[in-house]
Amino acid sequence: MAKPSVGVSEVGVSAAPAQSACPCPGTLFPYPPPRGAGIAAAVRRKCLQVELGAGTGLLGGAWGVESMRASSPTHAKAAAALAAGVDDERAAWMVRHPSALGKFEQIVAASEGKRIVMFLDYDGTLSPIVDDPDAAFMSETMRMAVRSVAKHFPTAIVSGRCRDKVFEFVKLAELYYAGSHGMDIKGPAKASSRHAKAKAKGVLFQPASEFLPMIEEVHERLAETTRCIPGAKVENNKFCVSVHFRCVDEKMWGEVSEAVKGVLREYPKLRLTLGRMVLEVRPTIKWDKGKALEFLLESLGFADCTNVLPVYIGDDRTDEDAFKVLRRRGQGVGILVSKHPKETSANYSLQEPAEVMEFLLRLVEWKRLSRSRARLMSLQ
Ligand SMILES: [Mg+2]
């Protein structure tokens, strides 16, 4: 199969073939990189690295309704599991993935001499999972917690949602946003005064630009095909399409699966992945939340550094790509948000967004105290 030309879009730079048009932006980040590399080098390298990953999706694989059930436990199922005495299983799981709150001191001790970089998923991590994906609002207290974290650490939101939509929910211009599972990355529109003078603007990386017309077309086809399935909701997330089945009767999940697979058979350059109560259609490029995490670390100048501690918090199967990257690097902290035992590559767990907020606030408080202590020491 021919390799597509994968371009990079920035403000004023349209998508173009990779090798010939890698832009070399100036200072886009409010956090001064500790050394060399920087965004230009990161973009150049990624231009060369993004490749077709045909056949890596779920379409055509041995999956279907059972996979949907496994990744999307319903409240009734979770309650039944508890009633059946699965408490022991949960206790064993918690030993392997202890609470990030319970192990807070251990986590901050690991950051000694390192720069923490925060990566946060949105749905189910900063906001509760709700029936209507358009109503997944985050609380004002959570927004304040994220704002406080971003004052101390570079902070990115990494979501399957369209970048514009997730920004509408979060409303914090000082953050990095990686929408569409990391296929649409943008630096802060507003520089954090604590970290930089430069105002950082612009789209940094869009490795799937050429798929936009195809995604539009598939969005329309999927909306049409699933129109007769009560509760099914199709969402255009710019570089991917989400088919939510949260409000579909479980007896009809098979129909959702068949409808989506039926459409995708005509689009071999797209693949299907499974999230929490959602089927997601994406380009077959080798790009995911893990790649987005690496791209952002590289852009911030932490590509091969040992003095960085990435902390990634997420609740979804798609967040596993990021947890795996941290495992592979032997660097950083992966935290899964889940009330129920799940197979995960995360180190730690938190039960729900309320615990995520508590963790973020404790991190801010710890940082403030550390700074105060350092100031006192310097005066002695
Ligand atoms: Mg999520």
Write the layout of secondary structure elements.
Elements: H1 38-49, H2 65-71, H3 75-83, H4 87-96, H5 104-110, E1 115-120, H6 140-152, E2 155-158, H7 163-170, E3 176-179, E4 184-186, E5 203-205, H8 212-225, E6 233-236, E7 241-244, H9 253-264, E8 270-275, E9 278-283, H10 289-299, E10 308-314, H11 320-329, E11 333-337, E12 348-350, H12 353-379
Parallel strand pairs: 1-2, 1-10, 2-3, 10-11, 11-12
Antiparallel strand pairs: 3-4, 4-5, 6-7, 7-9, 8-9
Termini separation (Å)?
67 Å
Low-confidence stretches: 1-38, 47-62, 193-201
Number of continuous helical runs: 12
* Annotated CATH architecture of the domain at 113-207 and 287-372: 3-Layer(aba) Sandwich
The level of helicity is 25-40%
CATH class term of the domain at 113-207 and 287-372: Alpha Beta
With strands numbered from the N-terminus, the spatial order across the biggest sheet is 5-4-3-2-1-10-11-12
Gyration radius (Cα, Å) is 21 Å
* Mean of residue pLDDT values: 81
Shape: globular
Give the SSE order as H and E letters.
HHHHHEHEHEEEHEEHEEHEHEEH
Structural class, from secondary structure content? alpha/beta
The proportion of strand residues reads 5-15%
Tell me the CATH superfamily of the domain at 113-207 and 287-372: HAD superfamily/HAD-like
Pfam families: Trehalose_PPase (PF02358)
EC number: 3.1.3.12
Family: Belongs to the trehalose phosphatase family.
Pathway: Glycan biosynthesis; trehalose biosynthesis
